[in-house]
Amino acid sequence: MNYFSSFNIAHEAFLTDMQVQELTAAVLVEYPHDSMMAELHLLRVCMAIRDGRLSLEQALALAPVS
To answer: Which residues, 6 or more positions from 9, have their beta carbon under 8 angstroms from its beta carbon?
Structure first.
């Protein structure tokens, strides 16, 4: 995925590579055939975590189950 600067925002949110991989996997369950929507959703989740509106645990709990 390379549409948005999700990984820069993830870095600002102090997320580890493993945590970003977990979020990415969760987002891809929701958007398996639309990489742009998946990355946009990942970006929005990372921004919410960075801004303190959502925790990583909350984001993963809200993710759809495959």
So the answer is: 43, 46, 47, 50
How many structural domains does the chain have? 1
Instruction: Read off the pLDDT of residues 44-60 as tens digits, 9 standing for 90 and up.
Output: 999 999 999 999 999 99
Residue 1 forms part of a structural domain: no
Question: Global pTM?
Answer: 0.87
Whether residue 42 is contained in a domain is answered as: yes
The stretches of 1-66 forming alpha helices (DSSP H) are 6-12, 17-30, 35-50, 56-62
Domain that holds residue 25: 6-62
